[in-house]
Known about the structure:
Layout: H1 3-8, E1 23-26, H2 35-53, H3 62-84, H4 91-120, H5 131-149, E2 153-154, H6 159-190, H7 195-217, E3 219-220, H8 225-249, H9 257-278, E4 284-287, H10 295-314, H11 317-362, H12 372-383, E5 391-398, H13 401-408, H14 410-427, E6 433-438, E7 441-447, H15 451-466, E8 469-471, E9 474-476, E10 480-486, H16 493-509, E11 515-517, H17 520-542, E12 545-554, E13 560-571, E14 575-577, H18 579-589, H19 592-614, E15 621-625, H20 628-631, H21 636-647, E16 654-659, H22 660-663, H23 668-679, E17 682-688, H24 695-700, E18 705-708, H25 710-713, H26 721-735, E19 739-742, H27 748-757, E20 761-762, H28 773-786
Parallel strand pairs: 10-11, 13-15, 15-16, 16-17, 17-18, 18-19, 19-20
Antiparallel strand pairs: 1-4, 2-3, 5-7, 5-10, 6-7, 8-9, 12-13, 12-20, 13-14
Amino acid sequence: MRPEASANAQTGTASTDMADMAEPVRQVAPLRATPVLAAAAILQVVSAAMVLTNATAERIPPGLLWLTTTMSCAVGAWGNWRTGAVAGLDAPLRRFWRQLGLTCVIATVSLADNTRRAFADPGFDGKATDLLSVALAALTGLMLFWTLLSVPADRSGDRSRFLRLALDASIVGITVAVCARYLTLDGGAAAGLDAVPTLIMSGMGLIGALAFMKVSMSRLAALDRTTVQLLATGAVVGGGGIVLFTMLLGGANGLNGSHVSIPPAILLAVLAADRQRRGAGAPAATDTRRRPSLVPYLAVLLAGAVLVQVAYRTGGPVFSVALAVVCLTITVVVRQIWSLMENDQLLRRVDAGQQLLAHRANHDALTGLANRALFEQHTREALAGPQRDSLSLALIDLDDFKAINDRLGHAVGDALLVVVAERLRECVRADDLVARLGGDEFGLVLHGLREAEATDVLTRITEALRRPVQALGYDLLVSASAGLAEAWAGAGPQELLRRADLAMYAAKGSGKGRHAVYDARLEQHQAADAELGAALRRALDNGEFSLVYQPIVRLPDGAWTGLETLIRWQRPDRGFVGPDTFIPIAERTGLIVPLGDWILRTALRQAAEWDVLFTTDAPREIGINVSARQLREPGFAKDVKDALAETGFDPERVVVEVTETAVFDGGVAVDTLQDLVGLGVKVALDDFGTGHSSLGLLRTCPADTLKVDKSFVDGIGRASEEAVIATAMIQITDGLHLQAVAEGVETAEQAEKLYRMGYRFAQGYHFSRPLTPQQVHEQLSARHAASVAVPAAGGFGV
């Protein structure tokens, strides 16, 4: 059961008097004085003053009263016809206002005839009738009836709503019919009214009441509720008021009900027409307020009043019974209205709860941004709109956010996301959409921006995120990678999102804190990556990988102290594939985890075999490269422990080689290294000096060895900045009691220079290229057979 139905069940039939929840509310410009509105207001004031002047004695000739009323009706015709000519109205609405203007024209002609008679006959009181008067009055009523019934309305709804409307219409119709019969045959005669004009006026009152009922109970499409309420109220005042005031005034002092009722009715109609002009073409908002319709209750009370009047004239016990019944009816009506008001309050609370639930369903609870569902819906709607060809979509992913979560906790990470969300809002316009798609990924829908303008937005975002972020007492630096895709003719939301995602990963691949724009060439790279990723999985399953080992030697004699493990891939169909090609793909696809586990276990088994065969002549240490992805993998330290237990290899002879980038942000990667050190494993920082080098890193990372990158070794034979850096690094390692290994040594001169600078360990082609297990075995066999620990003197040549 819907919440509305449940609430309604608590108050009986009160639900039959509630308008539907959602209605269009036209956004209109502020009210301003226009010539038509000013004229209608002035004539209303003048007419009211003249009626009050003649209230006790005839001081103003009746002709002037009829003339003022006629002028009011003419102003109404002018205002309504002008509204029908406003640009931006659809055809049904334009026709409605012109019909209303035509109704006022017919009424003006009818009133002009009365004005002529009043000036010709000072005793004319509006009661005398002829064929022309009856025809004009009847035509006015029929025209008004046709016009009000053509009010554009939303006729959708279920059968129960239609039944409620029919029942309420029956209540109003029966009441007006009873009143018309009484006025025509009994009350009208007592008041001195002619039957024909009274019947016509009663019919106009019925028209006004039915129009008001329609407004109160219908969902309106082209007209907002206020506009039609003004019109319907004017119909009631102009139709029912004529009958009521004519009975009360009885033609005394030249007054007629038309003098009292028509000017305010016209003023209301002009106000409605002016409101329509001010809101023409404006978008409709949603009005969720439920308004009770009191028309059926008023109709019942009016019928009760007629009953009391008839019973009073009859006298006796009939009057007492009628009065009691009417009082009882009034009590029931009051109780029902009270229940209706309570029901309305309950439904408002239900509405508020539903709106809150709807907001939560479409928004992220942490940041308040749109969530993925709303983001995709908004993208779909924007692509179907008029600005679809100037739409851009961006995806933003924070760099290394997981490290912040792991190191500082999720509370700090959440606080960081809230600040990032606020900065994203500040960098876009009000009509752009910012969404949190999940985790540390955000999305932007940028309306009306081409590629260059959208790129400027991403540049602003990058600069905004570079400012330090305060998160629960921590000052954090954050960067983000962003991808941008521009919509095209026939673009679909999923394809546009895929392109933005592809561009974002291209930005991540080129470095942190960058953005990239989708380009068709990215598709080729993605296809190649996908194909290579699938081939990697098959290669791992089919045993296509192999290991080679590059010796690490002691200076100056070149004796082996350890071996660095390197992976090679020989594809049966395409030949050799370099590690620089497939390792990044393995990182992105996650295959580096099973591949790294294979490398670890294979290298340890091989090292254990050499230990058995060559005892003290076997390499002292075995170095194994480990990626950042492996260090962040839960349970990696346990996997290393299991592999050591399985092979029986001494953990103190295992060196895990990691890059600076893998451990620069600390967090779980450093924690994993600490766990490995606890097992006895050593840690070497590989390619030192090319990444995020800092002395702080040497304090936080439990490293035993620094491997100085080849780029610094290349320049040591000449006066260069690289030589200065290489010298500084050996001084740092000596001061911190770390072992330094110079990588990429290719000449004897470089080896000699490094030795003089203080380096005692090196690696490179000058000493040996990477060797297959068989080649390592052969060299170890030769050394073991000769029982030679070091080569001959002069040792810088190999």
